[in-house]
């Protein structure tokens, strides 16, 4: 994976972030979701590199080979604002004053927070298979709770750690098909989830989502804060986001003036299952080809 990419660690002061990066063009930052690592982009990143972009793929704080501070009772060390600060520090370390930013799943919430807090840094934002956390929770009903039950299970104290670390490969294997992921990507994921520290950090991501991150988004809405840059929304045809909410672009228009995007024919992990379509859609958006 990632032939021709450099791999390095960036000390952000609060965390040590593992980063894969290559290229000299406009900087594209790709943020992965749960429980993946930066390796989830191994098919998309080279295609964007071929399009003339510099490509940066970090492991988010606590995921993969990145390490952050110990969890806290208020979950703030794993808030999206804290993780977004890591990405900002990576950009400084790599010499990028502006970025084109894409996030999938949990990574989209980090990307959203970074774009809201630092519009001077984020030139364009792409979100994949997501709407804001507060929008999910405002619409939560029996269908959502049934389909997304893991949000509420992961938020429980101690129990999820005991369940998952008892047999992490069994827990994650049903949604981690090596044939779809690629063998090396799959091996990297399995190595990560065997580490109880990584499992704890991933759970803290969800605990922060239902507490500090929710409050941050609610404060943004009350203050009338909106995304200042163009936004592209991509979503999977074989996931349940559209089933729950219809066209997700309608929801994102409550947060941004310029929203475009489309459905991708894929399951949830669309960077692994439909890399050519994802790289094409992102490249077109980042080059501003309408």
UniProtKB/TrEMBL annotation:
Gene Ontology biological process terms, A to Z: acylglycerol catabolic process
AB hydrolase-1 domain span: 26-257
GO cellular component: membrane
Record bears the keyword Hydrolase: yes
GO molecular function annotations of the record: monoacylglycerol lipase activity
Keyword S-adenosyl-L-methionine listed: no
Superkingdom assignment: Bacteria
UniProt keyword annotations, A-Z: Hydrolase
InterPro entries per UniProt: AB_hydrolase_1, AB_hydrolase_fold, AB_hydrolase_sf, Epox_hydrolase-like
Name of the protein this chain belongs to: Alpha/beta fold hydrolase
Organism: Agromyces agglutinans
């Amino acid at each position: 994976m990632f032939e021709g990419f450099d791999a390095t660690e960036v000390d952000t002061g609060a965390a040590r972030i593992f980063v894969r990066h290559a290229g000299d063009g406009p900087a594209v930052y790709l943020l992965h979701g749960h429980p993946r690592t930066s390796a989830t982009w191994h098919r998309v990143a080279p295609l964007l590199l071929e399009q003339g972009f510099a490509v940066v793929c970090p492991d988010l704080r606590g995921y993969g080979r990145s390490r952050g501070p110990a969890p806290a009772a208020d979950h703030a060390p794993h808030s999206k604002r804290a993780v977004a600060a890591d990405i900002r520090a990576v950009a400084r370390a790599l010499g990028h004053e502006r970025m084109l930013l894409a996030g999938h799943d949990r990574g989209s919430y980090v990307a959203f927070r970074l774009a809201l807090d630092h519009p001077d840094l984020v030139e364009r934002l792409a979100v994949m298979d997501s709407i804001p956390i507060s929008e999910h929770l405002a619409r939560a009903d029996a269908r959502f709770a049934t389909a997304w039950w893991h949000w509420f299970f992961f938020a429980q104290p101690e129990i999820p750690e005991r369940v998952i670390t008892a047999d992490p490969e069994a827990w994650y294997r049903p949604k981690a098909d090596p044939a779809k992921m690629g063998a090396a990507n799959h091996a990297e994921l399995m190595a990560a989830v065997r580490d109880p520290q990584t499992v704890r950090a991933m759970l803290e991501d969800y605990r922060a989502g239902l507490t500090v991150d929710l409050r941050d988004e609610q404060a943004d809405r009350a203050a009338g804060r909106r995304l200042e840059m163009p936004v592209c929304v991509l979503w999977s045809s074989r996931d349940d986001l559209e089933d729950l909410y219809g066209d997700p672009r309608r929801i994102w228009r409550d947060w941004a003036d310029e929203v475009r995007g489309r459905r991708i024919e894929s399951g949830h992990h669309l960077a692994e299952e439909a890399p050519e379509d994802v790289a094409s859609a992102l490249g077109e958006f980042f080059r501003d080809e309408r």
